[in-house]
Please model this.
Amino acid sequence: MSDPTRTSQSTRHATGPAGAAARTPAAAVAPMIRRPLAATFRALITAAALTGLLLAAGGVAAPAALLTRFTVQANLVAALVFACSAHRAWTGRRALSPRLTGALLPFLFLPALLHYAFPAADSTAFALPHATAPTVTQALSHQLLYALTPLAALADWLLLTAPRGFRPACAWQWPAYPLLYLAFTFAFPSAAGAPSPGAALALTIGLAGCLLPLIVIGIDQVRPAPRLRRNRISPKGIGPLK
Model:
């Protein structure tokens, strides 16, 4: 298959306007397609993540200390990435790298999985500060950060992105930060703001951090492509060339 960004030997030494046009990569003249629906949905994900973070910060005495929590870090990065993705979809620019957007899925689902499946993990630095009797504000922030934002990111991936965009190298790149963060909680529990997890819980967190990227990459290889808007050489109804 030919590479559209490369020029042939016959056009490489051409001069004048014709030569300049021949040496122009196809990607440089491809029309920009705006995706307002995707942009709106990603802006709503950004708003949900930021709202959850603000509600969580309002319910603690030292909001800056939340920056050491894995849940807060994952949702803060998700808000930044989805804001950038929304801007690119609205202006028709090239989408962000799947290596970056795909990493958000295991990052968001790891604390959500621990929160709902392993209640003991709520006392670790992977979760928000644990409260025996959470207020309405704290309960709402939990729903936004542990449920709504991860599920919305999952829907964006399945419905608004093309499949088979992840590379096998992501299987070892994505778990790197969760494993480093887990080691950080063992080495500096006071800096993490929570006690270190027990051996069994730490093993569970490590396995979940390694398996979630593999699950995401495996699903990406077999899932069907969504009905995305595609480029057309000529508008519908103009001529036989489509």
